[in-house]
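If you are new to this repository, start here. Below is one unmodified record pulled from the training split, so you can see the exact layout before writing a loader.
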Amino acid sequence: MWAASSVVSTIMNLRTPALLFAAVLGLSLAAAPSRAEVVDRIAAVVNDDVITWTEVYEIGADHIERGATADPSRRRALELEVLDVLIGRRLVEQEMRRLDMDVGDQDIERALADIARQNGLDREQLRVEVEGSGIVWDAYLDELSQNLREMMFNQQVLAPRITIRDDELLDAYRRGSAALSGPEQAHLQTLLLAYPEEASDEQMAAVLTQALELRQQALDGAEFSDIAAEHSAEPYASRRGEMGTFRQGELVGTLDEPAFATPVGSVAAPIVTPQGVFLLYVVTRDQPPAPEFEAVKGRLQQQLMELKYEEAREQWEVQARRRAAVKVLLESM
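And here is the target side for that same chain:
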């Protein structure tokens, strides 16, 4: 499912028009091979408005074909997913007409100017880029108009239904404080037993055996820093094994996992690399403190607003479908 409210917020932030349009659609406009065989069939009727099979594949071809290629039995379910989006759009269009609101040519021109400017282009260059990516310009304009309509709908119909209280923000802050603080960080010491140049299998096996022996010494109570100073290759020998403090994800893959899986005060199992064998000692590991509430209040408010927009849209659409005469014909094809 593609949420129109999130799509609109994406439009102005992308740097390339081709990616911009892909994000606006959430799909490709490339027609599926089967489309030509089913051009004028009716997929659904929403009150008096018809949605055709062609429209389903105009916005959903790539999504449908990709999913159906992986599992042909899912084709109809994927088509119905796309149709569901189109029904929601049609209900919004009808509500906008009822309220005598719609997107005009000036709105589209302003949006095009903004998109072109943010991508470092003029309007004609934007069109060249869009068409050069294989997208029909009129289809681009139609989808842009649709998303501007969704944005207007959000502002005029949904926004008055949404309120965010301070206690909700505080609750979101408390529940998400761990995530707000960022990834866990570990203070590490290490030693490297380097392989001799052009080492044989026997020599590499001997290095691993030595690593296992040194690890056992540390586990038995010997100071890891003393072991590193005596046995490690540089630069860790002169540092007495000091490696530093790292956030989860900052170390290379072979070191990152044991750094955050090994208990504090223990030594990870030997880590074999092309350079040699590492021993990793976890000195401390902790979660950085969460930022102050006021520092993240704006971000939390935006996240909560987006969530409430989605909830308000879902509630509105449920009510709109109950009031509307929606007949889905795709299932019987």
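Two things worth knowing about this chain: DSSP finds 13 helices and seven strands in the chain. The radius of gyration is 29 Å.
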